[in-house]
Amino acid sequence: MGQLTSGERSLGAAILIIMVILGIAMAAAGRADTMGVHGAIVLFYSLGLLVLLMSGSFGAEPDPARFTRYYDDPIKVGVGLTLAWAIFGMFIGVWAASQLAWPALNFDTSWASFGRIRPAHTNGVIFGFGGNALITTSYHVVQRTSRARLAGQFSPWFVLFGFNLFCLIAVSGYFLGVTQSKEYAEAEWYADIWLVIVWVTYLVLYVRTLAQRKEPHIYVANWYYLAFILVVAILHIVNNLAVPISFAHSKSYTIWAGVQDSMVQWWYGHNAVAFFLTAGFLGMLYYYLPKRADRPIFSYRLSILSFWGITFFYMWAGSHHLHYTALPHWVQNLGMTFSVMLLVPSWASAGNALLTLNGAWHKVRDDATLRFIMMAAFFYGLSTFEGSFLAIRPVNSLSHYTDWTVGHVHSGALGWVAMITFGSLYTLVPAIWKRERMYSDTLVEVHFWLALIGTLIYVFAMWNSGIIQGLMWRTYSPDNTLVYSFVDSLVEMYPYYIARAFGGLLFLLGAIVASYNVWMTVRLPRVVSDDSREDLPLGAGQSDHVAHPVAE
């Protein structure tokens, strides 16, 4: 709070008071409905932040010299939130996976049923863990590559805490049984409206920061972050257009009907993968890989080519989720064609990353953090190849609705998204807290092997499970009847579901190790550096000494 002026604190207090009033109104109007519970969450969340804000309201005005430094306080809080959501989301994922092997783990309660904890897991990991990681690293990257401080003092906090309020409302709603039944878009209508407000603020903040940059060109990592922010806003608004049954009830109905609803949903769903789980994390890759390897990106032109290829091709690929449905055949063909074409720009980024390591493979051998980033690039290439392959209609006839798709998703989610995130955090944390290195390189090494082994066990179990499922479901006897019942296929899946839960448990343990390592790193004494080489924005007594992350 010490970096906020009295005017900024007053603005924050005014917004939080409005949120308190809104929470009371939601609780009163909703009563026994889920909206009432969410009103209470908004109320107590806002009150907690208001107390925190008011505790520093009578302090001295901040030192004007703060503008000569990067604004890293929101980044530090974002790191903590990222790791907290990682542990929560992955724990729920292990629980959900275990329920498939041991159904009694729902404890005969509705809130703990698989249908409720599964979206809590996906949203906790994608939005809680992934979203906080993207916001946090984007704050770090845009400042360093622009050589300019974030354009606002208050708005970075509004985006960070506002986004986490959305995550809390969404996940708690799933436990309570409220959902729109849209993949990755299950949140209630009022949560969707709140996210639009937060996300537009995020977009304005990011653009304003780029506009006041001291660096002449916009480095490619910012292209990816900006595409992620802008396109996710468009996707979210269009897919979540809905009419609530009343303003005192959480239930709403989408304005889209029938096959149009399915088409819009998977236009959103696959582009959420494209621009939330791909473009944003490619922004991380293009900054933290050159930074950690201490080498320029292999080809700046190739990174631009990849950006425009991904931006154009991904938009048309979503309909491959709807093969063999009522969707018009030509739309299915369109999705299949663009999915196959998408392999080119995707492998361009994966290849660009791996070629950047030419001449630095000895660092990959010795540095587990760099190995996280390298393995993430490998899994990105693997997942994008598999995605293009599974989008082909004859292949999809075998894989669709099976665990093969689950294995594909998690090779990307664990192998690509989580590994690039942890590699980025291990690079970011010592730099932000001014530490020489992480608390324990051995723990980073332990985390790497837990994550890699857990991912491989999970993915190989689901690949085997999915292919067996697909073959059993399409095996006919000579008299043209199914040979195996659905229950027969479940029996065959049992050992693979145990392996899946074990692989997820290893990955969860790795996240816990990472959180401990980060916490102990923060507690290390600060490294006293030479002021002439301090990490400062351009124009703050720093020009030639500012280290640029990459060379063209």
Automatic annotation (TrEMBL):
Q: Where is the Cytochrome oxidase subunit I profile domain?
A: 37-552
Pathway in which the depicted protein is active: Energy metabolism; oxidative phosphorylation
- What cofactor requirement does the entry state? heme b; heme; Cu(2+)
- Which E.C. number(s) belong to this protein? 7.1.1.9
Provide the transmembrane region boundaries.
Answer: 12-29, 35-56, 77-102, 122-142, 154-177, 189-211, 223-247, 267-289, 298-317, 337-360, 372-393, 413-434, 446-473, 493-516
Which PROSITE patterns does this chain map to?
A: COX1, COX1_CUB
Keyword terms, alphabetized: Cell membrane, Copper, Electron transport, Heme, Iron, Membrane, Metal-binding, Respiratory chain, Translocase, Transmembrane, Transmembrane helix, Transport
Tell me the residue numbers annotated for binding heme b 2; high-spin. Answer: H408
Short name of one Pfam family: COX1
Cited InterPro entries: Cyt_c_oxase-like_su1_dom, Cyt_c_oxase-like_su1_sf, Cyt_C_Oxase_1, Cyt_c_Oxase_su1_BS, Cyt_c_oxidase_cbb3_su1
Q: Which family does it belong to?
A: Belongs to the heme-copper respiratory oxidase family.
Full protein name: cytochrome-c oxidase
Query: Source species, please?
Result: Ciceribacter naphthalenivorans
